[in-house]
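Need a sequence for this fold. Nothing fancy.
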């Protein structure tokens, strides 16, 4: 791993983010978790985009696609890529993994009765 990439990884870890490497179609991506503040901005943008279009299925799909790309772009640390030129499923896979890393999956919960 290049020194510059190591530095970016360490800076993000020091800021409290979880950082992982994933391989998709033989390409390695390093990404970080999404923060609560970033997630709230995405939700606010969703509300603004869909206001008055809540029953429009096309608008819902476009919003989901926009959100996936925004999550992937915000949290992918390496490589720096043009997301428009990636295979269509890569952005969705990255977004899904970022959300999983950010505790959006129930499997990450550990509950103990006290």
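Here you go.
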């Amino acid at each position: 791993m290049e020194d510059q990439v190591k530095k970016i990884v360490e800076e993000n870890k020091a800021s409290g983010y979880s950082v992982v490497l994933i391989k998709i179609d033989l390409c390695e991506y390093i990404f970080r978790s999404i923060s609560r503040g970033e997630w709230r901005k995405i939700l606010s943008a969703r509300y603004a985009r869909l206001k008055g279009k809540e029953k429009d299925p096309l608008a819902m799909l476009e919003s989901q696609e926009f959100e996936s790309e925004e999550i992937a772009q915000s949290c992918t640390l390496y490589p720096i890529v043009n997301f428009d030129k990636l295979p269509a499923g890569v952005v969705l896979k990255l977004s899904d993994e970022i959300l999983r890393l950010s505790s959006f999956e129930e499997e990450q919960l550990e509950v103990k009765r006290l």
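For context: The chain has a mean pLDDT of 90.
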